[in-house]
Amino acid sequence: MGKNTVDESLIAMYSNYYESDDILQKRKITAVQTLEHIQAVLNGHLPGKLLDVGCGEGSLMEQMSHKKFADKLYAVEVSKSGVETTRSKNIPELVEILEFDGYQIPYPDKFFDLAVSIHVLEHVEHERLFITELKRVSNHIVIEVPLEHTIRVSEAMKLGQQYGHINFYTVDTFANLLNTCGLKIEAIKVFPSSVELHKHMYGNFKGLLKYFLRKSALSIAPSLSTKFMTYLCTVYCTAA
Question: What CATH code is assigned to 8-193+226-239?
Answer without folding.
Answer: 3.40.50.150
